[in-house]
Amino acid sequence: MSRNRTANKDSSSDPFLGTKFLTLFLGCGFFVCNTFLPGNVYSSDVRSPQYLPLEARWCLPIGECLLLEIADTIEEKRIGLMERSLIHSGTGMWFQFSPAEIVRFWMHKTYIPLDIVFLSEGLIVAIEKSLKPCFLSPCKSYGPNKLVDSVIELEAGAVERLGIKVGDFVNIEYISGTSKDIK
Predict the structure, then answer these.
(1) Pair type for strands 114-120 and 54-59
(2) Closest CA relative to residue 93, chosen from 62, 142, 65, 51
(3) What's the angle, vertex CA 57, arms to CA 158 and CA 49, rounded to 5?
(4) Could you tell me how far CA 140 lies from the centroid of its own chain?
């Protein structure tokens, strides 16, 4: 008789039922938040920041040169400068797109403010200045509604400090010595 009462015991009297439900609910919530993202952005489950070699140089008419990391694989482009705590003055990251395309950049998990320069055939076609970090998705995306073949990310304030403006011609040289005009 006692055995039947235990087998037919009402589950609502289980003292851990609320805890089990809460754990299941929170687990599903974290799964959904980390799985579904707004359109045209990559997942940003970055584990640690990437540091790429400084492989290119952009010398400006004022005589100052910027050293650039080159993000040339899909994965390197997806991660970009995410989760970096600083970017040194005089350096940046260069993204190339071939063929040219309309691109959107966002500041999700990017901990440092940035200036972003958009180029087409060697000319600067748009600039976004002093973009603020965004820690929770969805984050605003930035970029012109024009085809671009290159994008350069710099520390916030660099565009102003260096006098970089829309319409400027850009010549990036590979440090190995091979020159490449962006065209």
Answers:
(1) unpaired
(2) 51
(3) 70
(4) 11
Cis peptide before 138 (omega within 30 of 0): yes
For 69-95, what is each residue's pLDDT tens digit? 999 999 999 999 999 999 999 999 999
Cβ contact 103:97 at 8 Å: yes
The amino acid that residue 109 corresponds to is: K
- Quote the pTM value: 0.72
- Residue 83 contacts by C-beta under 8 Å, 6 or more apart in sequence? 46, 48, 49, 109, 110, 111
- Coil, strand, or helix at residue 161? helix
Contact 170, 123 (CB under 8 A): yes
> Which value, in Å, is the radius of gyration of the alpha carbons in the chain?
24
Per-residue pLDDT of 156-174, as tens digits, reads 999 999 999 999 999 999 9
Q: What is the pLDDT of residue 59?
A: 96
CA torsion 25-26-28-30 (nearest 10°) is 160
Q: What mean pLDDT value characterizes the chain?
A: 81
**The two three-digit tokens of residue 129, written as one number:** 């200045």
pLDDT at 90: 96
Q: Residue 121: what residue type?
A: E
